[in-house]
Design brief:
The chain is an alpha/beta fold. It folds into 2 domains: about 150 residues, 3-Layer(aba) Sandwich (Rossmann fold), CATH 3.40.50.2300; about 50 residues, no CATH class. A 5-stranded parallel β-sheet has the order 4-3-5-8-9, sandwiched between helices. It has a two-stranded antiparallel ribbon with strand order 1-2. Strand 8, helix 4 and strand 9 form a beta-alpha-beta unit. The relative contact order is 0.12.
């Protein structure tokens, strides 16, 4: 396991949290509120209180439902019971190696994406062990939101693509570009879908976003 850095915070400078060793922990808040992550379910794991609060508030400002955690064990229990879209995971956790956590999740083929974060450049190692994206601290609010939005919508599209073959085998067929044949296959594979107005509305939104 890598040596764990100290997490003592002594001062602020230019809206960036700075550790005792002078390393900036938090980037600038360079983005306003919005709805880029509306209804997304995100878990944030960071043992530094101020960093965790900043990550949580930044994502909530974009409409996400965020659950903050100071340690990986509670979040591991949480993701077993809640269908989360994304986990923002600090690799340098006190007493725990975030890479090992990602290895376990990768082995279990978890359905959510992971954005790994650290003040050290573990980008290659993180992606090799299943991270969708890696952000090196200090990163800005805009960088966090952009990475989270990309991961969220990637997972959303992935769920549609991973439906049973009967529900998607016409995707590449002539005329499939309108999305009509895809919806027809979905209804054929799941008859009750057509009776659920919420599902119908979501599929229509998806069709418009993917096919215009």
């Amino acid at each position: 396991m890598r040596a764990q850095p100290k997490h003592t915070v002594r001062k602020y400078s230019n809206r960036r949290q700075v550790r005792a060793d002078g390393h900036a922990e938090i980037g600038a808040n360079d983005i306003g509120s919005g709805d880029a992550l509306k209804d997304a379910k995100i878990a944030v794991v960071d043992d530094n209180d101020r960093t965790r609060q900043w990550l949580t508030s930044t994502l909530r400002n974009q409409g996400a439902n965020v659950e903050p955690f100071a340690a990986p064990l509670p979040v591991c229990k949480y993701v077993r019971t809640v269908d989360v879209d994304l986990v923002v995971l600090d690799i340098e956790l006190l007493g725990v190696d975030g890479i090992d956590v990602m290895k376990d999740w990768r082995r279990d083929r978890v359905p959510f994406h992971v954005i790994a974060i650290s003040r050290y450049d573990y980008s290659e190692l993180a992606r090799h062990n299943g991270a969708f994206e890696f952000l090196q601290k200090p990163f800005t609010a805009k960088q966090l939101v952009q990475a989270s939005t990309k991961a969220y919508y990637s997972r959303w599209r992935g769920e549609v693509i991973s439906l049973p073959l009967e529900a998607r085998k016409d995707v590449s067929a002539p005329g499939a570009g309108s999305g009509r044949s895809i919806w027809a296959r979905l209804k054929a594979a799941f008859p009750k879908l057509a009776e659920d107005s919420v599902v119908v509305g979501l599929v229509e939104i998806l069709r418009k976003r993917l096919f215009g």
